[in-house]
Amino acid sequence: MARDLFSVENKVVCISGSSRGLGKALAQGFAQRGAKVIISSWNREELASCQQEFELQGLTVDSVVVDVRNRADCRNFVSTAFKLYGTIDVMICNAGIDVIKPTEQYEEDEWDEILDINLRGYYFCAQFAAQHMLNAGRGSIMRRDA
After folding, report:
1. What is the count of structural domains for the chain?
2. In which domain, by residue range, is 47 found?
3. For the whole model, what pTM was predicted?
């Protein structure tokens, strides 16, 4: 019933921070529904393990090592999707961190890392995806807490 509400069959979906947690669940769901999914993580081993797990489930996903703090990595993430499939339909900016302690106790380097990953990383992935989407006249960009 709800599965018939919309289709993501053959849609190209990029998900940052998708080798575990919510990002992994989103990737699995999109792949099960027939989307062409590109997962990413800064952790090469975790990413390979996640991709292998999906393959054992009969799901096909592509993967790219991406540290969202690095603008060039974000550009490469989107470029890879475009090279593989000629388009990008959905960008889910899921990579994010939190420091588990009261904010008044954050050290400067902890705050910088939160901003680099949760704000700059989101912006870089969205910026490069938007360039392709604007040229195509379609696409969707979402963040993990939307």
Report:
1. 1
2. 7-143
3. 0.92
